[in-house]
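Structure tokens please, single chain.
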Amino acid sequence: MAELEIHMEGAEGDPSGKKIGVLAAVIAVLLAVVTILSHRAHADAVVFKAEAGDQWAFYQAKSIKSHALAVGRDLLRALGTATAATEGVHARYEQERKRYEGEAEEIKREALARGAECPHAERQALRYDVGEGLLEIGPGSVFALLHRPPPTVSYSWVGGGPCRPCRGRLRVFRLLVASRRKAEMGVRR
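Here you go.
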């Protein structure tokens, strides 16, 4: 399959275009990495929630078994048939009930631990989502500003002019726009 090549007249000597292209490629790679990390963090949060839910269901099953054995034990006592066989069943029920209660407490601790991991994964996923959004929006608006004439800036902010941090940004913006205009002027001639 033949490759498609696009040649623009007069763009061969445009160093700012090459820099912008490399910058766009770097930002695209960063965006891809952050997007992948974001998706993995969301998947981890879902897995932690599912595992915690599974553990709680297992805890409920053990609790129900323990309760059923307690009811059986109480029924044997209520019937009043105190024979050697019923005493053996009563002892077995009590032993099983204690075992289920112990297992249920262990499962409860594990479910709480899994549930505690979920908010951390969700916060991490949110941070990746914010980073992804900034990588998508930020460079696009900078490129849009570089390719258009600068907006009229009002110097009526702090004391008749922009505050000190804004001045530096305005200078950088003016230099970028001026170099872009020079490059465009050189290409047009």
